[in-house]
Amino acid sequence: MAKPTDIIKKKRAEAVSRIIGKGYLSSKRVYVGMATCEIAAGSKEVMEVFKNAVTKGGLTDVYLSQKGCAGRCNLEPTVEVIEVGKNPVRYGRINPEKAQQIIDKHLKKGEVIKEWVID
Q: How many CB atoms lie under 10 A from the CB of residue 40?
């Protein structure tokens, strides 16, 4: 029979593996607005661009998730990029082409696309 400490160590290792596997410890986080109004504005297509980049290896060390309504319907779809040690950046009126540019310029090269930033 396994000792209680061995069981705890195994459970901890499994939990850490899940945390790392889901990207919760990534240095970059991307949140795509997926409230009903944002979906109507095209956020599903925007999310697909980011999902494809993450799953196909184009983006590493990135946690991708969705967020709810930000109350900025006139600026939808929105994307928020949060990086360790930097101020969050919120982009507005993002379409799939702009999403790809956010990946190529901001997430890969660290260049904020200022003309799309919203307060």
A: 12
Determine, yes or no, domain membership for 52: yes
Number of domains in the chain: 1
Q: Residue 78 has which token pair? A: 């929105």
How many angstroms separate the CA atoms of 118 and 115, rounded? 9
pTM: 0.84
Question: CA-to-CA distance for 63 and 30, rounded, in angstroms?
Answer: 6
CATH number at residue 53: 3.40.30.10
The answer as to whether 10 is a domain residue is no
Determine contact, residues 53/59, Cβ cutoff 8 Å: yes
Convert the pLDDT of each residue in 53-94 to its tens digit: 999 988 888 999 999 988 888 999 999 999 999 999 999 999
